[in-house]
């Protein structure tokens, strides 16, 4: 995993289409926020905020008045800024990664992160960085892609000849985590686990729709590659997905990983 710069640049390229292509992420954000315990969440920190899905849900459910959003992608932050005109909230959006975010400790009623955690390097340290920004009694809520997500696609990539870049295959175990692992990270950060769970969905889509999602969230894995070489790999990947597609579409599993924990106090 890199330091977040290449991830941010990849999401810059996807920012304009992100909300449309990643509709399931909005649904996941609503599920995460619905699972937070009742409370007063007047000021929140949204880490890896993207275009603001989780913050929007926090505003809708809890009437959150102040949002600090942190994301390495300026393109995603710009999309979030465009939404703020229609939201009754005071907001500060900062381009930074989780390990470098210039925000104070013990300053927020809730720290939330929706579909970004799997791209964070040094995941235990990332949870600790989020946890220390909580006020005593504050709540951490994380939504991420869990172990088993897109396993069908990984198997396709493994079988392509000539081989695709090894990083495209090796990334799966680097980014995905289980419920048990996330609970461990939260406890190591001094938090009390409220609930950690996984929800597995089987989806069927066209090959084009599937690869549009992959390109929107993982284009940074091709950073620096010769364009012709990347196109050649992409054509073979498309053919592999087409060959694996049945009459109802390309079938794949997506595991949403949820975690909710509280800082004692």
Give a summary of the structure in a few sentences.
By secondary structure, the chain is of the alpha/beta class.
Keywords:
seven-stranded mixed beta sheet, Rossmann fold, single chain, 265 residues, alpha/beta, 45% helix
Question: What this model shows, in words?
Answer:
- With 265 residues, the protein is of the alpha/beta class.
- It has a domain at 5-148 and 174-202 and 255-262: Rossmann fold (3-Layer(aba) Sandwich), CATH 3.40.50.
- It is built from ten helices and seven strands.
- It has a seven-stranded mixed β-sheet with strand order 3-2-1-4-5-7-6, with helices on both faces.
- Strand 1, helix 3 (53-62) and strand 2 form a beta-alpha-beta unit.
- Helix 1 (5-21) packs across helix 4, helix 2 runs parallel beside helix 3 and helix 5 packs across helix 8 (179-188).
- The longest helix has 17 residues, at 5-21.
- The two termini are 35 Å apart.
The geometry reads as globular
Question: What percent strand?
Answer: 15-25%
The biggest beta sheet is recorded as: 7 strands, mixed
Could you name the CATH class of the domain at 5-148 and 174-202 and 255-262? Alpha Beta
Compute the separation of the termini in Å: 35 Å
Elements, N to C (H/E): HHEHEHEEHEHHHEHHE
Topology:
Elements: H1 5-21, H2 23-35, E1 43-47, H3 53-62, E2 66-71, H4 74-84, E3 90-95, E4 108-114, H5 123-131, E5 134-145, H6 151-159, H7 166-175, H8 179-188, E6 192-205, H9 207-218, H10 227-243, E7 250-262
Parallel strand pairs: 1-2, 1-4, 2-3, 4-5
Antiparallel strand pairs: 5-7, 6-7
Helix pairs in contact: 1-2, 1-4, 1-9, 2-3, 5-8
């Amino acid at each position: 995993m890199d330091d977040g710069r290449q991830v941010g640049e990849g999401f810059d390229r996807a920012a304009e289409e992100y909300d449309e292509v990643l509709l399931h992420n909005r649904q996941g954000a609503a599920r995460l926020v619905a699972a937070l315990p009742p409370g007063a969440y007047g000021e929140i920190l949204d880490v890896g905020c993207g275009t603001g899905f989780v913050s929007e849900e926090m505003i809708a459910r809890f009437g959150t008045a102040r949002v600090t959003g942190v994301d390495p992608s300026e393109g995603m932050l710009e999309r979030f800024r465009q939404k703020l005109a229609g939201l009754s909230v005071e907001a500060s959006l900062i381009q930074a990664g989780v390990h470098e975010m210039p925000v104070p400790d013990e300053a927020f009623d809730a720290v939330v992160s929706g579909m970004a955690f799997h791209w964070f390097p040094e995941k235990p340290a990332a949870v600790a960085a989020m946890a220390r920004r909580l006020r005593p009694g504050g709540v951490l809520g994380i939504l991420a892609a869990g172990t088993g997500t897109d396993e069908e696609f990984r198997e396709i990539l493994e079988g392509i000849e000539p081989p695709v870049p090894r990083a495209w295959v090796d990334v799966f175990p680097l980014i995905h985590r289980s419920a048990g692992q996330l609970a461990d990270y939260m406890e190591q950060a001094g938090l009390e686990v409220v609930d950690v769970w996984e929800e597995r969905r089987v989806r069927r889509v066209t090959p084009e729709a599937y690869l549009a999602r992959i390109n929107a969230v993982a284009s940074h894995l091709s950073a620096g590659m010769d364009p012709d070489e990347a196109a050649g790999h992409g054509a073979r990947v498309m053919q592999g997905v087409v060959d694996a597609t049945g009459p109802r579409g390309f079938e794949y599993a997506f595991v949403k990983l949820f975690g909710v924990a509280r800082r004692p106090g």
